[in-house]
Amino acid sequence: MSRQATRDDEDPASRWWATAISDISPGVIRLRGYPVADLIEDASFAQVVWLLLRGDLPSPAQARLLERALVAGVDHGPQSPAIAIARMAATCGVGINNAMASAVNVLGDVHGGAGQQLMELLARIDADDALDAVRAALADLKARGIHVPGFGHRFHPVDPRRDPLMAAVERAVSDGVVAGRAYRVATEIERQLAPIPMNIDGATAVIFSELGFTPELGRGLFVLSRSVGALAHAWEESGSGLRNKGPIPRTSLPAYTGQPERRVGHGG
User: Fold this and answer.
1) What domain count does the chain have?
2) Helix, strand or coil, per DSSP, at residue 9
3) Residues 6+ away with beta carbon under 8 Å from 263
4) Would you give per-residue pLDDT tens digits along the chain (268 residues)?
5) What are the Cα distances from residue 227, in Å, to 20, 52, 155, 223, 234?
6) Does one domain contain both 34 and 48?
7) What is the pTM for the complete model shown?
8) 150, 197 in Cβ contact below 8 A?
9) Does residue 35 lie within any of the structural domains?
10) Does 130 share its domain with 240?
11) Are residues 30 and 150 in the same domain?
C-alpha cells in the first residue's frame, strides 16, 4: 500500500521545489489559488496562461488581446525552419513530443528571437521623446551592424498578421486597456524605417510589452504559440508514410563546391 503524500512547510524536502504556482495534494489541484474545476468551467486557455505567468486572472479585454497574439503566431508552414524540422523529425520515427521539441529547440536568437529583442529595444527607448529617441536608437543599431528586430519579412512584402494585431492594440489603447507606450515607439520605428513594415514578431512584441510581460516571457509565449503549428505539422507528416524525409527531394542533389575527384597517393 502506498503512503499518503504529506506536506510539512518546514521540512527541507517539502521546500525543495517550493512553488507559488500550483497547490497539489491528494484530490486537490489549485492553480494560483483557483481550484482547477473552476478554471475548467470558467477560464479560457489564454486566461490560464496569464494566470500561471502573472499570478492572477487578466481582465477579459487583456485576455482577448493576449489570445490574438497567440493565435497569430501558431504557424507559418514549412517556410518556417522550425516547422520543417518538426515534419522532418516525424519521418525519422520519433514520437510526436520529440518532433515538437526538435522544432522548439531551433527557436533561438535568429529564428524566433526577434520579438524578445524588439521588446528589449522598446523598453530602452523614451516614449515621451519617441522621434529623436528612435532616430538615435536606429543610428546606433546601424553603426553596430545590427538588424532592427521585428521589421521586414523574407517572404511577405507586407506581413498579413501585422494590421489586425496593431488595430487590436490601437483599440486597446483607445479603451484604456493598455497604456500605448510600446505602440507609440514601435509605430515611430516603423515610420522611420519606411517602407519596411512591421512583421509578426514586431506586432506581438508590442502586444506582449503593452500587457506587461518581460522580454523573456515574450519569447516563451511565441514558442508556446508556434508549438501548436509544430504539433499539427508533425502529426500530418507522420501520416504521409514517408521515412527519413530529408530537407530536399531525393531527386535533387545539393550543389557540390569542393575539390574535384582525386586519388590518395596521386598528388592529393
Assistant:
1) 2
2) coil
3) none
4) 456 777 777 888 889 999 999 999 999 999 999 999 999 999 999 999 999 999 999 999 999 999 999 999 999 999 999 999 999 999 999 999 999 999 999 999 999 999 999 999 999 999 999 999 999 999 999 999 999 999 998 888 899 999 999 999 999 999 999 999 999 999 999 999 999 999 999 999 999 999 999 999 999 999 999 999 999 999 999 999 999 999 999 999 999 999 999 999 865 5
5) 26, 18, 21, 6, 10
6) yes
7) 0.94
8) no
9) yes
10) yes
11) no
Alpha-carbon distance of 168 to 249, in angstroms, equals: 41
C-alpha 206/C-alpha 200 separation (Å) is: 10
User: Could you tell me if 213 and 176 lie in one domain?
Assistant: yes
Residues 26 and 69 occupy one common structural domain: no
Amino acid in the structure at residue 2: S
Q: How far apart are CA 90 and CA 84, in angstroms?
A: 10
- Cell numbers found for residue 83: 516547422
Residue 262 lies in a domain: no
User: Is 235 part of any domain?
Assistant: yes
Q: Whole domain around residue 38: which residue ranges?
A: 20-58
In single-letter form, the type of residue at position 162 comes to R
